[in-house]
Fold these 4 entries.
Entry 1:
Amino acid sequence: MLEAHFIIFLLWAVMQSLTGVFANGIILVVNSIALVRQRRLASLDLLLSCLATTRICMQVLIFSIHLVALSLVKESVFIDNFLILMFVNELGLWFATWLGVFYCVKIATIPHPIFFWLKMRISKLVPWLILGSLLHSLISSGLQSNYMWSFYKGVIENYFSKNRTKTEDTPSEPFYIFIAGLIPPLLIFLVAVLLLVFSLGRHTQQMRTMGTRDPCRNPHINALLSILSFLILYFSHYAVTILFCAQIVQFGSFLFLLCVMISGAYPAGHSIILILGNAKLKQNVKMFLLRGKCCQ
C-alpha cells in the first residue's frame, strides 16, 4: 500500500470511529440523564439506548479491523474477538430492525386489525423485543461458536494468509447457514420500510386531493428520509458482510479497504441520521452541548 493511501485510510478510520462513538455516546448520555430525572424511560428511548450501546461496541471492533487491515496489529486480535463481533453485529441488526418497525407502526396508518393491535401495544412490546433479540443473539452466537467457528476461522485466516486459497475450496454449507441467519431481520425491516412508504405516499395523495395542508407533513417526511437513509446503510452493511464471508474481496485490495470503510460508516452514519431526524433527541443534544460549553 502506498504511504499516502495508508495515511488517508488511517485518518478516515480514526475520524469514523470517533464520530461513531461520539454520536452514539451522546444518545446514550442524553437518555441516561432523562432516566435519572424522570425515573423512567420511554420505549423509543430505551430502544435507541440499546442500539447506541451496540453501536459503540461495533465501532470499536470495526476500528480493530481497520488496524489489522493496515497491519498495525496482529490478525490474532481480530480472530480472538470475531465471535464478539458476530454477536454485537447480529444484536445491533435486530435492534435496528425493531427501530424501523417502531417507526412504521407509530407513523403509518394501515386499516388492518393486526396493525391496529400493534399500534396500541408496540410500546409495551419493545422491552420484550429487546430481551428476545438478546437471547436470540446469545443462542445464535453459542451455536456458531460450536458448529461454525472452524468456517469463520478458515475465512479469516484465508484473508490474512500469504498463500491464499481459492474461494471454491471453502465449504459452502456454513456460508449458506450464515446468510440464512441474516435474512429474518432484513425481511422484517424491508417490510416495515415498504409499509411506511406506502402509507405516507397514500396519506400525501389524500391531502393533495382534499387541498388541505397536513401539519404532520414535515415530521413524517423527516422520519421517511431517516428510514430510507438507514435502508441504504443497512443494505450496504449486509452486502459488505456477505462479500467478506464469501471471500470475494482480496485482503489489502482497494475493494477490501472500501468495504471496511463502509462497515464503519454504518453505525456512525445512522446514529447521526437518528439525531438529526428526531426532534426531541436533537433538542436534548443541543442542550447537552450548550451546557458542556458553559461548564468550560
Entry 2:
Amino acid sequence: MKKSFVVLFALLMVVCGCSSNKVEIRGKFDRGTSEKVIYLSTNDINRYILTDSAKIRNSAFTFRTSVEEPTFYHIGFSNNEFVTILASPGEKISLSFHSKTPGNNYSVEGSKGSADVRLLDIKLYSTKRKLDSLMLLYSETLTNESHPDHIKEIERTYEQLVKDQRKNNIEYIISNPSSFASIFALYQQYDDQSYVLYDKRDLQYIKIVSDSLSKYYPKSKIVMSIVSDLSRGKMQLLSEQLGNLVSSAQETTLDPNLLDINGNRVALSSLRGKYVLLSFYSYASQDCINENLQLKELYKTYKTKGLEIYQINLDADEATWKNYVNYEELPWISVREDDPTHLTNARLFNVQTLPSNYLFDRDGKIIASNLHGRNLGIKFNQIFK
C-alpha cells in the first residue's frame, strides 16, 4: 500500500510538472482574414525555426506547446508579417489582431513578457516611421538647396529621435534586468546594420542582463549565448566598436557601493529587506533642494515602516557636499560618486535630469522610477498602508 502511494505521488508530480510547462496561445482577427493557415516559429539564438502551424477557423486559431523557460516566438503568415511574443511556462496567451494581418496593431493578454515585447516593438516602429520621414525630408531639402540651418535642424531632430529610442530601451533594461524581454530590448534594430543600443558604453547593459539572467537560467541556450559572446569579445550585435571593449570591461552591476560623509562605504544591496529610494541630486539645483524638503517629511513618516533613502550626490566639491548634508540635517544615507569627473552610477542608471530616482522593493527589484511630488507620496502610501 505504501509503495503504491509513493508511485502515485510520483506520477502526480510528473503530471503537475508537465502541466505547469504548457503554453496556450489563442488568436483572433477582429476584422477577419483571407488566410487559411498561420505559423508558429521558435527562437533559436539568432534565427527562428518553423515549429507548428494552425488552421484559421472563424478568424481564430490556437497553438499549444510546452516550454521550460521564457521563449520567444514569431506568429504570422510570412517573414514580414508576424508578431513576436515571449511565452513563459503555464501562460494562457490571448492575441487580438485589429487588422487582417499580424502587425503592430494588436493587443495581448495573459503574458507580461509578451506585453512588454509589444510595447518595445511599437515604440521602435513609431521611431522608425519618424526617422524615415526625416530622411525623405532631408533628401528633398538637399535637392532644393535649402538653407543650411534647415538642414542642421533636420539632423538635430534625427539625432534626438535616435537618442530618445536608446533611452527608452535602457530604462526598460534597468527596470527589468531579469526579464527575457530585456534581451529583446538589447538587440532591437532599425535595420540589418543599425542597432538601437549603438554607443560603446552600452556594453554595460549587456553585462547587466547576462549576469542577472545567468543566475536564474544558467542552462538557457540564449543566455549562455550572450555570456559566451561577452567572454569571447565577439559582441557584433550592437556595433563594431564593442568588440575592442569586451576584454577590458569591468564587472557592471546595479549596486552602488559608495562612501558616506563619515567615510564608511555603504552598498545599496546592504539595504535588502527594506524599500529603498535611490535618489540622484545636486545641491546646486533648486528642484533637488525642494524635493529634499519633501523627502524629509516622507522619511519621517515611513522610516519606521521600512523605508530607506540612498542618496547619491553628483557635485564636484566634497567639502560643500558635506556641509550641505550637515546643515540640512539629511537623516538618510548620503553618499557621492567616487570620482565626480566620471559619474559612473549616474550613467549606469541613465540619469538624464535632476532630481532622478528609482524605487526598490524589499528584494532589491526596481518597482518604479522618477516619481516626484504627489506621485511619490501616493506610491509610499500604497506600499506602507
Entry 3:
Amino acid sequence: MTDQLIANATRDAASEATTPLPRPTVRLASFPRGGVAAVFGASGGIGSALSSALTDSRQFDAVLSLSRSTIPGFELTDEDSIARATEQIAGAGEVRLVIIATGMLHQGDRLPEKSWRELDADHLARVFAINATGPALLMKHLLPRLPRTGKSMLAALSARVGSIGDNRLGGWYGYRASKTALNQLVHCAAIELARRAPEAICVSLHPGTVATKLSAPFASASGVAPAEAARHLLGVIDRLAPQDSGGFYDWRGTPVPW
C-alpha cells in the first residue's frame, strides 16, 4: 500500500515538474503595499523558500520568518509562545499575510502507518498536535489580527492525501487524518472570519511533492525544488479572492476535493 502511495507521488511529482505553466509572480500586487508577512515553520524547506520569495517580492514592509530557533520564536504545542509571537508580529505593522508551513509526516525512524495494525495512540496524538492542533492555535491568535479592509490572508499548507474524496489507496492514517482535520479547521475559521473581515481569506494549500526533509525517506518520490514550489504557491496566493476563502487548492490553484 505504501509502495503504491510512493509510486503515485512519483507520478504526481513528474507531472508537477514537467507541466508547462506560466512562471508565477512573486510580486503579490493583489495585496495592499506595506504591512507584514509572516511564515511559521520557516526552518523547513518550503517555509525557508517562501520567506525568501516574500522578501524578494518587496510587497511588504517586513517579512518575519518564525521557527523554534528564531526571535520571535514559537512552539506549536505551546500556546503561550504562539501568543507572544503574535504580539511581536502585530507590533511590526498590519498583518497582511500569514503562511503556516509547519507539518509532520514522519518522526525519526517512525514512518507513516501502512496498516491499522501500526496505529499507536501516542503517535497519533503527536501527529495531530503538529498538523492540526498547532495550526488551529495559530489561527486563533492570528486571524483576529488581520485587517478589516483590504486583502489579507492566512494560508495553511495541507496535503492532497488529506482529501477524503481523493483517497483511493488508504494507508498513512495519522498524516491523512490530521490534514483532513486541518482542512475542516480552516474551513470553519474562514466562515467566522468572513463575518469580521469580508475581504480576508483563509485557505488550505497543497504544495505538491517538494524535495524536502519531509519527503526525504521516500527516495523514489522526487519533487520540485522548494524555491519553485514557493513561486507556485505565491502565484496562487496572489490570485485568490475573498470568494475563494475556506477552500482547499493545489499549487496550480485548482480546487482539491474535500
Entry 4:
Amino acid sequence: MPFEISSRVLDGPVLAVRCMAHAGPVRTALYQNHLEEGATMVDFHGFELPIQYSSIRSEHLACRTNAGLFDVSHMGFFTFEGKGVREWLSSVSTQDVSKFAPGRCGYTHFLDNDGRIIDDMIFAVETDDRIHGVPNASMVEVMRNWLNPLLPDDASISLIDRSRGTSILALQGPSAPSIISIIFGRDGYPGRFKCKNIPMNDLGIEGWIQGTGYTGEVGVEIFVDDGDAPDLWRAIMEAGRDFGIVPVGLGARDTLRLEKGYLLSGQDFLWPGLDEPTPEDLPENFLTRGTLESNVPFGLSSDHDFIGRAGMEKRAIQNVRWSGLRCISRGPSPRLGHQVHSSENDDSLIGYITSGAPSPSLGVGIGMAYLDNPETGRVVYIQTSPRRR
C-alpha cells in the first residue's frame, strides 16, 4: 500500500499499553469525575485511566476544533532547585536550558553515555534557581535514579519528586485560553510555552500552569494538589460548556499526538537499560534511538556539551530518521511492526512502523517510522500483512 513521507503527518487506534508490575491499578484523584462522564477505564502504566468517553474520533475532533480536557495525572512532576540549576540541567540533557529565561518552557531528551534516549521531558523555568519537569508515567523512578547521581557533590542542587499528591489536568484546543480566563481571570492563560503560578481565583486553588501539551493545539497543563483536582475539573467543564468542551481519553490523546509527530516513550523509543523486550514484530533493539534519529529538532540545542552527545552524533551517521507517513490509497492503517519498503519488491525494506492509526483529521491512515535515508514527498509501501502491501 503506497504512503507518502512527510516531515510530520499533519504538516506534511491502537494505543500501546505498557504496564509496570504492580499490585493493582492506581486511581487518580479524578477517578469519580471520569465515571460521572461515562468513561471506559483501562489500566495504563499501572493507573486506571479513561481510554474514551464517547468515541476516540469525536473526542479527537472536538479537541482540534473546540476544547478537550484530559487527566494526565499518571505523568510525573519533578522540581529542580539550586544555584546554577539551569546550567546543570543543560549538562545532562540535549537542550541548552541556560538560554531559557524564567517563565519559559522547553522540551529536552536525556541520553545515556552511549547517546541513547532514556526519556524525554517538558521543562518549565520558574526562576533562575527553580525548574519544573514532567517525566513520562513509567519513567519517574528510572529518571530519578538516573539524575540523582548526576547532581553536584556539594548538594547545591536538589531534585524533588512531587509526583505523588499532584494531579495534572490538560486543557487543549483553540478555546482553551478563553476557558482558562473564566476560571483564573484574564491573566490566567500564560501563553504558548510560557509558565507561571496560578493567579488568585474564586476557587481558591493554588498551583502551577504552563502553556504546553501533547496535542499540537494551543492549551495548558495545570498542576494542583490532588484534593483540588475534582473541583477544578468540574469548573473547567462548566466554563467550557458554551465552547463545546468534551472530556478526552487516552485513545484520542494518542491519535492527536500521532498527527503532530510527537514521540511516545516506550513506543517510539525504548531505552535498553530498562531490560524490556523489543516488540516481537521489530528487530532486536530497533527502538534504541538517539535524538538526531528521532528527528525532533526542537528538542536539541547543538551548541552546548551534554551527556551522550558524542554517542548521539555517532549513531546519526547511518542517516536513519523518524518520519511521518500518510496513506495515499485505500486500505488498513499502519500498525506497530509493519514493514516499510521503497518499492513493491520484497527486497526493498527500509524501515518499520513504530506508531500508526487512522487519522480522524485527515480521514486516512497515518504512521511514524524509522526509515533509511527518508526523503520528504517520496512514495513508499507498507506491508500490512505477509501477503499484502
